[in-house]
Amino acid sequence: MPARLKGLYAITPDTEDSARLLSLTQAAAPHIDILQYRNKSPDAALRLEQAQALAELCRRSGVVFIVNDDVELAARVGADGVHLGRDDGALSAARRRLGAGALIGASCYDSLERARRAVEAGASYVAFGAVFPSGTKPDAARAELGLFAAARTLDAPLVAIGGIDAGNAERALAAGADAIAVIGGVFGAADPAAAARELAEICRRNGR
After folding, report:
1. Quick one: CA dihedral 102, 63, 54, 127, positive or negative?
2. In whole angstroms, what separates CA 120 from the centre of its chain?
3. What does pTM read for this prediction?
């Protein structure tokens, strides 16, 4: 497990086109610190196929690999951890299943109290967002950037998510985020590799 989760945290687009998904991820991987596999498809076989391929790609590239929502899928492909939202099961159960060394992230939306409870329950990091208007989740509650300063007392890595791109990433980092979680800002760009490179450079300039 990284001593301090930080940097560019890319989240895959929801797609059934496995070849395109792998091609996009391969291009961006040299500039990514953490990759989260996110696919809401009900097709379990497809999700297993994609997760296995991405897990192998991340191992070759030295990228931390996280699975969204699905503890069993994370265990099956040997992921570094799992990310859980409010309806994705107990953090304690995920910890028992994945072990003490797993990274377990928790979506805390706009709630410092939820983040506090998540850390007490064993979360490895907490995520706040949407910090900016999000094209992926346009109805998501907005999380004020001031949350990051307030959450410093939790002594856990803090991830900012929601509408982040090269034009506003520095604001999230300056507010206190250790990592910036990006979907469209990387995978929706005309050149995902160039977009990831630019965001990674912004992270480095800000000590992340």
Report:
1. positive
2. 20
3. 0.96
